[in-house]
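INTERNAL AUDIT FORM
Audit reference: QA-55
Scope: verify that the stored structure record matches its stored sequence.
Auditor: D.O.
Record contents follow.
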Amino acid sequence: MLNDVADWGIITTVDSATLAILFLALVGAALVYAALYALFAKPSSSLSKKRKQEMANGFQIAGGLLLGFALMGSFVAFAGITLGVTSSTKFQVSRLLAGLIAGSALVVIGLMVQRWAKYFAGWIAWGILNSLMMASSGHLLNDPAIPVGRSLALTMAGLCFVTVLATRRFTKAYKLNWAEKFALMAWIVAFALSANVERFSIPALTTGTFALVIAWWWHHSQSRRRAHRSIHRREPTADRP
């Protein structure tokens, strides 16, 4: 009887897993079909053209997000192996190869900084919510076995809040200068360090946040100088009869 129950449980588990995989496969096929239709179908009206453009933009954003998560995940994970704080047996790579992969991911992230900068503030704003939830619960999200100090979580939330304030000007139409690109990449490196070495988490993120604040100050001072020069150029014209 017990064997029958166990066998039924195994069959039910396998069936559930099969159904879940089948459902995900159908959803994936539907998304692929929708993407191909959005990209290659010939629109017959202005409304169809608008819908096609919206769908293409949606899949472009989704693909960019997936690529961003893959690059950041690779950089953080292989940076940990390179630093010797993460076991290399999980990925079966040497520290030299891990360093090459992490460096390549960082280079690609740097080359695409203008594309993902407009999403940066929103991503960090989500980190504020996560930090406040950890401060309230006292443990890591989705893992109650790992305690998190409330002071640490609140400090992380404060750093994230300052980061959002310093980067909320990064929009789709905004053109990054060299200081802002450098500051964003410094924050990425600091994030990877804080994720791999616990004792450096706050100092690293503080350094990354400070770099973004310095970039904001530089942008603000440059804007004030340009506005001041523009006013001085207009004053002689205004004095003419």
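Auditor finding: record pair retrieved intact. Strands lie at 139-140, 143-147.
Action required: none
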